[in-house]
Write a structure and sequence with these properties.
The complex is a heterodimer of chains A (268) and B (228). In chain A, 51% of the residues lie in helices and 11% in strands. Chain A is of the alpha+beta class and 268 residues long. The longest helix of chain A is centred in the middle third of the chain and has 21 residues, at 152-172. Chain B is 27% helix and 12% strand. In chain B, a hairpin with a 2-residue loop joins strand 1 and strand 2. The chains are: A alpha+beta (268), B alpha+beta (228).
Chain lengths: 268, 228
């Protein structure tokens, strides 16, 4: 050390901070939790809110009476992308061979075209597209999908692809989306660099709307928040501007609570 | 698809189109451990030096970043740890795993991202050599000296350069001007790359790239050109 210690305030090294973050995540069980869980009932959700506000507990009972199951996604800032993409692939498997599934595939493949123009190095991101394609392709064993999603390369590869595709979609439709972010960011590109590209930064309304438009798939989000509602629980319904050219209105349904998304299975 | 496959593709690309400023080889044929030789940029205190470093990739690459360690554990630089377990390790935001935590004071866009290519990371590292980031130095003494007494700092760097000369590969022609650091256009004719991994489908990409460059001119000398 030189005598010049007054100038450098006491600050942990970057490595100490990074190690600390890792420890916290391990302690909170984040890095050990499944990327996407098995189907489960709502007892876990009930337990989480057992001492919470009545309005939360009422909404959970409403969900429990209108939905058959849920799946949790790992709470690492990628939960929207993981929950959404798991259900997306699962629906493709369930509905393989239907006009809906064929239209979804067509739309997904078309999306690669504008991703190629999005300023990314295609030789690198093509790997991530391959991973999603592989997960979208139905296998004989339905358990294989969940197994695939437990693989880090698959799960993170899909998240990376979807972030890149959403970013490319936002850029390609700048005139629609820029107005929504100008309150908090000077340009859409700044927003994308800060809120879409970095793995681990959570998705918000804009990313979800863009995702629905990108995939052509309706995304419904049950909002578990403390505002009371006469309908039991509010759903945000993100309907694609350019829907798939089929009659089928199949939706991906997610459960939102502040900072987190899971998969929901509404009763038929 | 796997981490190894992704790395092989990038390594192959770098071997095919070397970027001025560094040389990359594999250590013990292990695709997860690269030996990087950084050529001291002309016009900086690092000119004339050849700095060996080891770049290690994690098994979950590209979702987590590689580490970058100078082989010389005493590498004197504000962004290189001077002592302890991490002596010689470069500390730079693009090699930090993405984190929504704001303690580090880094914007997520400055941190590692799986869509980054390694070439761009290496280029950033070369420019960090002569343009250190002193806002959160790994080596506080080096950071202070850099700001307070540049001649003394440059002398420390000169010592590093002298020490590094023994590592210059015999076939490497060291650049003498900044011109030598300019990107060399790719060869107009396809080279025989049969010694590299087979990867059909790459050819389309190369053709596109060729269109983006001007015709290669004779006086545009790459640093690895051994005719000089």
């Amino acid at each position: 050390m030189t005598a010049d210690t007054t100038e450098q305030p006491e600050r942990p090294t970057d490595q100490e901070i990074l190690d600390h973050i890792k420890t916290i995540q391990q302690e909170e069980g984040i890095t050990n939790a499944a990327f996407v869980s098995e189907k489960m009932n709502f007892d876990g959700l009930r337990a989480e809110y057992a001492t919470g506000l009545q309005v939360f507990r009422d909404k959970i009972e409403h969900i429990a009476s209108t939905c058959s199951a849920m799946r949790t996604a790992r709470k690492d800032g990628n939960c929207f992308y993981r929950a959404m993409s798991f259900r997306y692939c699962e629906l493709l498997w369930e509905k393989a061979g239907t006009p809906w599934a064929e239209a979804v595939w067509k739309r997904a493949e078309a999306s690669t075209e504008f991703v190629k123009t999005g300023g990314y190095d295609w030789t690198i991101i093509e790997d991530f597209w391959d991973v999603l394609k592989e997960a979208m392709t139905k296998k004989d064993d339905p358990a294989k999908l969940l197994e695939d999603f437990q693989n880090g390369y698959t799960s993170d590869g899909i998240v990376t692809w979807l972030r890149i595709a959403v970013a490319a979609y936002l850029r390609a439709n700048r005139e629609i989306y820029e107005a929504f972010i100008l309150d908090s960011y000077p340009t859409l590109d700044e927003f994308i660099k800060d809120q879409v590209d970095p793995i681990n930064v959570e998705a918000d309304q804009i990313q979800i709307t863009a995702m629905a438009n990108l995939l052509g798939v309706r995304i419904k989000v049950a909002n578990l928040d403390p505002t009371s509602t006469p309908d039991g629980i509010n759903y945000h319904d993100m309907e694609p501007m350019d829907p798939l050219p089929v009659d089928d209105q199949t939706s991906i349904v997610l459960l939102y609570r502040p900072g987190h998304y899971d998969v929901l299975y509404p009763n038929a | 698809m796997s981490a190894a496959h992704a790395l092989q593709r990038q390594f192959k690309e770098l071997a095919k189109h070397p970027v001025p400023g560094f040389r990359v080889t594999l250590k013990d044929d292990n695709i997860f451990v690269w030996e990087v030789g950084i050529i001291g940029p002309p016009g900086t205190a690092f000119e004339g030096g050849y700095f060996l470093a080891t770049m290690k990739f994690p098994s979950d690459f590209p979702f987590n970043p590689p580490t970058f360690n100078f082989n010389n554990k005493k590498f004197f630089h504000p962004n290189v740890y001077p002592e302890g377990d991490k002596a010689g390790e470069l500390c730079v935001s693009i090699l930090h795993p993405p984190s929504s935590d704001e303690t580090l004071g880094e914007r997520p866009e400055e941190q590692w991202n799986p869509a980054r290519n390694i070439e761009s990371v290496l280029i950033s590292i070369v420019s960090l050599l002569s343009d250190p980031n002193c806002s959160s130095p790994a080596n506080v003494d080096a950071g202070v000296l850099y700001r307070k007494d540049r001649p003394a700092y440059n002398q420390r760097i000169k010592d590093l350069v002298t020490e590094s000369k023994k590592d210059i590969p015999p076939d490497l022609v060291m650049p003498t001007s900044e011109k030598d650091f300019v990107m060399k256009p790719p060869p107009t004719e396809d080279e025989d790359d049969s010694f590299l991994w087979d990867d059909a489908g790459d050819d389309d990409y190369d053709d596109d790239e060729d269109m983006d460059f001007d015709e290669g001119s004779d006086d545009d000398v790459g640093v690895e050109d051994d005719e000089h």
